[in-house]
Task: structure prediction
Amino acid sequence: MGAGKHGFHKEQFHDRSQSLVHELAVCLQHRRHSMSLTPCKTCGHQVAPTAKVCPGCGVKNPGVRLKHYLYGIAFATALGWFVINVLGAPPKQDGVKITAEEYGEAWPFTVPSVLLDCEPPAYTVVRVNGGTYAINGSARSKAAKMGWRDLSAIWREDPKAVGTTTPWKVPVPTEMIQRALDSCPKP
Result:
């Protein structure tokens, strides 16, 4: 057979094109495999990350690196901390419920019951209907800064002061303040 216009025979052109296609396929296959392979941690032989044994040296789990173990341990630790401290933490108790029945005429509030509590370091407060009210002097001095409500909104007037020119309030019993302070977390 004669040479074509450019000096190639059809058979040569066909063979050469098949050879190029084969080389391209091998190159792509090699590239595809080399992108997913990692060097063995012991001998450096290219292995799949999921290989159980290296064919070069026989080491177990050749594609797994120490950093993968450390990342796994760090993740498991963080997950464990989150589960224990966030999801498993008991809800914070918002004080002790006290009622007007317990104190009788000495009850200082206009509501029938409150939750008596202490905010660190020594702020005695009561919680009523979602609001927090400062009771003792140190708490009342910080009430505005802490976002607490004015106690006078729920502070009962003393029935003995009715008819006088000065409306007196029922004093908050010292025992009530001490009870709250005893429940305050110690530093």
In short: The CA atoms of residues 40 and 173 lie 76 Å apart. Residues 35-89 form one domain.
